[in-house]
Amino acid sequence: MSYWPDDGNVEAFSQRWVQSGGMVWEAKGLGALTEAVGEAWQQLVVPDPAAVVWPVIYWVNQELETIDWSQIFETRGPVEAWQWGPGKDLRSVASRAVLGMTGCAWAVAATGSVAIYASEDTGLWPSILPPAHLVLVARPRIVGTVAEGLSQMAGDCLPPLFKIVTGPSMTADIEGTLVIGVHGPGRVGAIVYEV
Amino acid sequence: MKPVELFVTCMVDAFRPTAGIAAVRVLERRGAEVRFPQEQTCCGQFSYNGGYHHEAAQLARHFVAVFESSDHPIVALSGSCAAMVIHEYPSLIAEDVLSTGGSKEEAADWKHRAEQVGLRAIELSQWITQQRPEGAAASHDAKSATSVVLHQGCHMRRLLKANAEPEAALRQSGIQPLTVGDEDQCCGFGGTYSMTEWKVSTALADAKWDNIKKVVQEHAATCLTSADLGCLLHLEGRQSRLGETFPVLYLAEVIDQADQQEKGGT
Amino acid sequence: MAGILPADPTPWTKRRDAGLSDVTMRRTIGIVTKRFSTGQHNVFSGYPEGSLARQAAVVAKRQAIRDMDKLWPRFRANVEARGGRTYYARDAQEAVTIVVKIAQNHQVQRVIKTKSMLTEELQLNHALETQGVLVVETDLGEYIIQRAQETPSHILAPAAHKNRDQIETLFRDDAGGRGIAPPQSNDAQSLTLYARQCLREEFLQADMGITGGNFAVAETGTVVLITNEGNADMVTTLPQILVSVVGIEKIVDTWENLGVLIQQPAMNGIGQRLSSYTTFVSGPRRESMVEGPAEWHVVVVDNGRHLLRDTVFEDVLSCIRCGACLNVCPVFRQVGGHAYGSVYSGPIGIVETPLLTDWSILPELPTVACTVCHACGEACPMEIDLPHHVIQLRQEKVRRRLVAASVTRSYRWWAQLWSTAGGYRRSLRWARWGQRLYQRQGTLRSAPGIARGWFMSRNMPPVAAETFHEWWDKHRMGGPS
After folding, report:
1. Domain C59-163+197-306, CATH number (from 3.20.20.30, 3.10.20.90, 3.40.50.10420, 3.40.50.2000)
2. ipTM for the whole predicted complex goes beyond 0.95
3. DSSP secondary structure letters along B192-216
4. Which of A45, A119, B185, C87 has its CA 20 to 30 A from that of A106?
């Protein structure tokens, strides 16, 4: 059962995201959200048990910054959680991380996509370098179509880099056989939340 | 009686006249009064597809002049030739008039004449199904029906957009048409392409036969048929060269046989 | 100004025969093209918005081509305003010179690249390599064929001609050369994992990235890249210098028009509503940021594009390189991409190659690689009139006397004879008389002239003893009784 049975965008987003090969959870309230992140960890993260530390790299949308995410992750094992922020070059952390968790600027119902901007506070590497990516989608940020999302981009707020993610990294370059997880993450999850 | 003008096509005329005769019988049984403008020759598609547009336009003008004197339907024994007349003639002729020094008025006049002829052109199975638009009112039950493999020519499919008609025409005669895998793939005939690029053309024929044979084995089909004799001569010619003898019949021949059986049976 | 495109010097007949006799390639190409074309068909069903967007995309792209010369200065101004550097290259040589110079100015040693048909067209890798720069293709298919020192055989699936065993052999040799562990087995998963590990190192070490551009947006100076693997995200975020090489025909005016176009490559190419990654570059990174290049250079290339403007072939410039026409083309499925001898294969390739180069290379393509089945015309989401273009190019060849004079004489003679009923009937009587020489057991087994090719592999019934015309004369003269 959806928390938002009347919101067609949530339903469509979730359906398309799953169809592209992603996993999806819903969370209403902070408690439910942190719980969902725990569930997502179970499903998405496959750390090397022999590894001394399990790096996690993350950033969240502003409304979730009050939560102590490091603490939440650290209950999962020898996690070393790194928060994206101005002035930090976390490229090597991101490429070692077992999970990247990000927010998103907007999401698209019709295609099951999320848009992520590169900026001082929000980064792209957590979504591409680790083998698993979890994206936190604020319900009101889901728009109907890609065109609707793109129409916001013409103004001055256009970041020098941004991207739209629609499912895991994949290829069919070898005999047309689908392989998930080429350069980017093979496991992707989305939590649609409202706080 | 419904008067129709028969456009028999050069391929039927020269290489399979019996298919034309079968078509006459099929048309007449369905209430047509068949007329045959004896001055007719060829639609000129061979030249057109080869890039010889002035040469094609000569044949096109001849066609228009031969067929424009009545307003009856022109029943063509080929989807591809019908498509040539309907879709290519108006601009082909008009452009040729202009490029050979004709006036704009002359070009426009020819274009109009070609369009009028094109409006009347119709492929045989389209005409048949038009007579009984309710479609598949098969007079035999499906189990005892003869199965045939139906190859749909590319121009029938994509230019005339007549995907349902050959099938419907066969069903009306109690015949079960079977489609083959990769049915939308060209058989490789392609007019003079079959001669100039015979290796590719033959590879396509072999691929088509592979798919046909699969269906034949599965469903015990009795023959291969199509609304385009060009494809059939190419496919038949290939198996003949390989020493094989699966029957290959033009659509009107299959329907004509069914008509005769029905008559014999009742 | 005519474009410069690479051409395989091997003659068509040899290229064709190599394709036809490559069983592995034909099998793999068959699987891949069928999967893609089925995907294209399925993705539109139950998604009317996708079809509406496609129709709007055709209008938007056609208009963009009309406005090409207005959009380029606007795009240029906006890239510069956001801190990028722009260049205009009239042909391949100019483009290559510009990129090589950028690399030299920064003492670049290692380049990572996204898949780009334009850079294939420019033979950019070769130019950089001769200057001692290591160039690594990062799309898996491109990475495979780069190891094999081959060219792409399909716009979207460059290694579609190779099977798993061949790829495993390539990677084993590669691993041997580097002294690293080879792929664990020949399954697609293991082979992909091997490439992932090798390329991850390349991504982190490279000092310059090169991308193509699926679209460019004039109003903000943005370059848009579409991938499923995520390699464009690496190439655009990791190296310090980024060069985007973009065809001038890729520029659209607004984000609104980009909105209708953006899904079309994936929908029509691979049957997805959107590719996994759509990456937008609108400038170098701000100093306070860590991701993205410190310098962004955008090279806009004409290389023959303008030759098509204001001609009946202008719509060809609307091509979004989805590969849909290749996937449905019967000739492509038989001979594969390499047989075309051009960077651009399949229906779009046989039209585009002679047009971009003003017929200076591969003039045989429109004649030899099309049965005029119209499948490409039906499949093209941008409604490019490929079948008629092929026919028009054949006409152009006749006009330019690129056809043997004897063939032209045959067609003339044929038309003259058949444009009167008398001549037509006479010719059939001649054929009936002449064919006695070529007949065996009631079937024709050979013939002279143009028809000779038919009989290399097929028989033909002889001209009937009584043609339909003659039957009618005899039985029906004066109408039905």
Report:
1. 3.40.50.10420
2. yes
3. THHHHTHHHHHHHHHHHHHHHHHHH
4. A45
